[in-house]
Write a structure and sequence with these properties.
Blueprint lengths: L44 E5 L4 H12 L3 E6 L3 H12 L5 E5 L5 H15 L4 E4 L15 H22 L9 E5 L12 H21 L5 E7 L6 H5 L2 H5 L17 H8 L10 E4 L7
Parallel strand pairs: 1-2, 1-4, 2-3, 4-5, 5-6, 6-7
């Protein structure tokens, strides 16, 4: 496990936000060659925000190989999104691309409507897209930056969830939110991001209770350090070089290593799993 994937130190590779998969060294593994499906999500329809890269890309690949059609929501990374679309379609599943800013409530509603129009409905909502930036002092965080982080990371989750709940069928509908180890163990240099992740965990727990009588489940996944474009585009060169060394496995996780958690939570057979957070942390306890 500790040697299955690349370990630090990593080369210098500063990127502009939001970052590109193709520019990363080493290139992340999203399960392109390794994930094998078994029909666990056959015939289901999923929305995945941030589905162009990182964790979202891995989830899209896994869902397609499990038999689901997917709508891939992303900001503006058209080349990355087109690659994911081709991977999904190679599995014989339908892929719909939806660029735009989920910080806008109207766009969130448009995402859901497009899923209805082109996929025929929504069974699974994966609220995965996130914005983060690193600051050493609270005085360096602008009002706009704070607002942007909350609108992308938690407000959009509310907008999308509110729009999909009336469309979901009892016993089949499921909502999966990407939280973080920062939910309970906040990194001070990621103050805005970590604060939203704590909100996501609370949102998920309350939502699961609210939706239980509707037969809709809500859960979260809390990743540890994962090798995605957010890392070289939002962290210092020194942090990127040593990224993942703080875990017992001494390396970052790859997006492919989270995919099974999202599949399990989406699987209708996980019918008694709601209100929980699955931590994927490379051996570091999540409390």
């Amino acid at each position: 496990m500790t040697t299955a994937y690349p370990t630090p130190p990593f080369p210098s590779q500063k990127q502009p936000m939001p970052g590109s998969t193709e520019a990363m060294q080493p290139r992340p593994d999203h399960g392109e060659k390794s994930y094998v499906g078994s029909g666990r999500l056959k015939g289901m329809k999923a929305i995945i925000t941030g589905g162009d890269s990182g964790i979202g890309r891995a989830v899209a690949i896994a869902y397609a190989r499990e038999g689901a059609d997917v709508l891939i929501s992303y900001l503006s990374e058209n080349d990355d999104a087109e690659q994911v679309k081709q991977l999904v379609e190679a599995e014989g599943r339908k892929a719909v691309l939806m660029p735009g800013d989920i910080a806008d409530s109207a766009h969130c509603r448009a995402i859901v409507q497009k899923a209805v129009d082109q996929l025929g409905g929504v069974d699974i909502l994966v609220n995965n897209a996130a914005h983060q930036a690193t600051f050493k002092d609270i005085g360096d965080i602008s009002d706009d930056e704070w607002d942007r982080t909350f609108r992308t990371n938690i407000h959009a989750m509310f907008y999308l969830t509110k729009a999909v709940v009336p469309l979901m069928k009892p016993g089949r509908g499921t909502i999966i939110n990407t939280a973080s180890v920062n939910s309970d163990m906040p990194n001070p240099t990621l103050l805005a991001y970590a604060t939203t992740k704590g909100a996501i965990q609370n949102f998920t727990g309350g939502l699961a209770q609210m939706l239980a009588e509707k037969g809709i489940r809500a859960n979260a996944v809390a990743p540890g350090p994962i090798w995605t474009p957010l890392i070289p585009s939002t962290m210092s060169d020194d942090a990127v070089k040593s990224f993942g060394t703080q875990t017992p496995m001494k390396r970052p996780g790859q997006p492919a290593e989270l995919a099974t958690a999202y599949v399990m939570l989406a699987d209708p057979l996980s019918s008694y799993v709601s209100g929980t957070t699955i931590a994927v942390t490379g051996g570091k306890p999540f409390i």
